[in-house]
Amino acid sequence: MSHPALRARAVSKRFGPVNALSDVDFILEAGEVHALLGVNGAGKSTFIKILSGVYQRDAGSIEVDGQAIDCRNPKDAIRHGIATVQQHPELVGDFTGYENIFLGREAQRPGLLSRIDRAGLARRAASFLARFPVEIDLTRKVAEMSAVEREIVAILQALAGDHIRILILDEPTSTLTEVEKKLLFKLIDTLRAGGIAVLYITHRLEEVLEIADRLSVFRGGKLVATMPVADVKQQNLSLATLMLGQALDNVFPAKRDGAAIGAEVLKVSRLSSAGKFETISFSVNKGEIVGIFGLVGSGVDELAKTLFGANPASSGEMMVSGRSIRPASPKEALQSGIFLVPGDRRVEGLALAENAIFNITLANPDRAAGFAGFLRRRSNRRASTEFATRLALSPPNLSMAVSGFSGGNQQKIVVAKGLFADAEVYIIVEPTVGVDIGARAKLYGLMRELARSAGVIVISSDCDEVHGLADRSFALYKGRQIGVPSAEITRDGLLLAGIMGECRHV
């Protein structure tokens, strides 16, 4: 009798008064790609952390190939054949690809004086890579690799132990372009054909229909549905409705009409940064959202950082509410009324070891502190609580270190930080990376709310997001501005501008 690759029975987990998981029964078959869906805080992250040995279950049992296992730490999980690639893989940037793949198992024979045979490691890595339908140069440093190359190195690192039977992928495409995503999916198809079971966690619902065999939906700490993806397609079911438990009529809020547009708050004229982008010109008015679509490498991230003073401009002009500015640092940009919500929240947006209140109030020291620099603790907590409620932060524990929140909830804290800043211009980069469909709608609504009293710029590699949210939009392609901000450009026209550099209002 054959057993499933993994079986969980009545798995439960509590964090104080919060019931994170309740009696979860789950089966993962060998050689299948199984998607886990759920809004932030639904329980799926807790479940995979139990499987990977980060958390210990309070009740229930877990079996791998019919054998009961007990994972007290990630090393135990790997020993039992379960490997995890986190949303932000912990790779060593100064090491080569092959050095990262065999990190911790470099020596053929263990011992204090064992020497690392780097040439041998490179040959082993090349032989290992040859099993898969991808081609990357593993002799390059990871810091020099593209996002998809780093993801592949992380997967190869996870699979370097030949006994791995179950691979958990947490938001593997969150920073990938469409072309890069297809390369990753080829690798996943090869793993599936080789009998490896893949647990696939994503908030990009269209990917589920493209890559998964089955899906399971978590809601409120419970597993509420499991079904084949083929049935979802045949019955034309809404994944968003399954996740939320109710229909979501419209993700994007209504756009402003012309009468609601106020005075100009930001004007950018022929702004350039040597080697990154050139002659960018646009304006933003109070009451509107201007969208900028661009893929990785198009210059959008560099543009955002130049507007925020973190990247030097080589030429051009900027004006905020009629005042000429040239911010030489983020501090000067903040003083000029510009706030940036960065795309990489973990590295650029948050102090992970500090709590939510500290992070939310960090962007506006004048508001956070009163006479002689003493913190306004009560008012800071009150404001933070208000923002956390509006954003449906889960769990609503403002005293918890930010590192303990899921990726989507970390993103909510960064947005709350922007709300506390009370700026004239908000630049919001990749606003919904790792954020579920329900929270996404709430974030979009808050951006529209921000635009009532400020100018908002949304920069994203998701064309549908830019087109659906922005009142006017344009694209960047290889550092060049394609077209002028327009309300008339169609979704397909914007996509063509961003991926081909062609300006067509189609």
Automatic annotation (TrEMBL):
Q: What SMART domains has UniProt attached to this entry?
A: AAA
- The ABC transporter domain extends over 6-245, 261-503
Q: Which domain of life is it from?
A: Bacteria
Q: Which InterPro entries match?
A: AAA+_ATPase, ABC_carbohydrate_import_ATPase, ABC_transporter-like_ATP-bd, ABC_transporter-like_CS, P-loop_NTPase
The keyword Repeat appears for this protein: yes
Asked if the Swiss-Prot or TrEMBL record annotates the protein with the keyword Coiled coil, the reply is no
Q: Which Pfam families match?
A: ABC_tran
**UniProt-listed CDD domains:** ABC_Carb_Monos_I, ABC_Carb_Monos_II
Keyword set, alphabetical order: ATP-binding, Membrane, Nucleotide-binding, Repeat, Sugar transport, Transport
Q: Name one GO molecular function term.
A: ATP binding
What family, per the record? Belongs to the ABC transporter superfamily.
Q: Which protein is depicted? A: Sugar ABC transporter ATP-binding protein
Q: Name the species this protein comes from.
A: Rhizobium alvei
